[in-house]
Design goal:
Length: 274
């Protein structure tokens, strides 16, 4: 009886915050997985939140999480904020699940080919609709008209913006996205590199998705708050974008010697097969 009363209390609390039980379970499970398997780290001189794929792949909560995402009612995503938060989480969770399923690998990209890149592979369903990472990014998230999604999406690669150590939430999404941009632009070798007075190299994300920043005045206007002030007294003298940083596609995890040997054996086996 006490347990029933407790559950009713939890439900009332969730409802009062405008959240439903299914979404609360998704966010709670995701948070627990991040707590257990994501850690601040470094690889190839780049800072990132690293994932323990060797362990997370054995955790049944990951399978349950993808199942819950698949069955969540799309009709409940009735605001832009809810769509942003839910589909950003879905993309990042399904990226983790894709790597975990094929672990160990050196790069997520290595699972694809030139004719059929990994972004076009089926990664499961979201709200009952079969998805690829490309479809999630281009046909769902980009159409929401929020350029900061590009600093929240994580395709399990070192040069990607960090996977956030908490779920995105509709009620906090604006602040979370602002924080993601700030972090990314401050990370050495990831967001930008100042090359001298008035010259800057940027992450290729700004080249690949340049048109998405038109709604906020273009890439130059978007990056200005994160650059040192140049002109006086307004500090708004334009910066010249002189190139783009190399993109490190290696997986956001450390591989041990046994995992590296397994990858090499697999590569040799595939080579002989072809």
């Amino acid at each position: 009886m006490k347990y029933v009363v407790f559950l009713i209390g939890v439900f009332c609390t969730l409802v009062s915050y405008g959240e439903d039980l299914e979404l609360a379970e998704i966010n709670l499970t995701y948070q627990k997985l991040l707590d257990d398997y994501a850690r601040v780290g470094e690889k190839h001189s780049l800072a990132a939140n690293l994932i323990n794929f060797a362990s997370i792949r054995k955790d049944p909560r990951l399978v349950q999480l993808t199942f819950n995402i698949q069955n969540y009612p799309k009709l409940r995503l009735d605001t832009k904020q809810k769509n942003l938060a839910f589909y950003l989480n879905a993309y990042n969770i399904l990226s983790i699940a894709k790597v975990a399923k094929h672990w160990p690998i050196k790069k997520l990209k290595s699972l694809g080919t030139f004719l059929k890149p990994v972004w076009t592979h089926d990664v499961g369903a979201v709200c009952g609709e079969q998805m690829t990472l490309r479809k999630l990014e281009h046909e769902v998230l980009r159409k929401l008209g929020e350029p900061r999604i590009h600093f929240a999406l994580n395709c399990a690669s070192m040069s990607c913006p960090d996977i956030r150590l908490e779920p995105y939430l509709a009620e906090a999404i604006d602040q979370q996205l602002a924080d993601q941009v700030k972090i990314f632009m401050s990370q050495k070798g990831k967001g930008m590199l100042i090359k001298g007075d008035g010259k800057v190299k940027l992450s290729p994300i700004f080249k690949w998705f340049a048109e998405d920043f038109d709604s906020v005045g273009g890439v130059g206007a978007f990056i200005l708050p994160y650059l040192p002030k140049r002109g006086l007294p307004t500090g708004d003298t334009p910066w010249e974008i002189v190139g783009y940083l190399n993109y490190d596609w290696s997986v956001n995890a450390h591989l041990n010697s046994a995992e590296k040997k397994k990858i090499n054996r697999r590569a040799k086996s595939n080579h002989h097969r072809h």
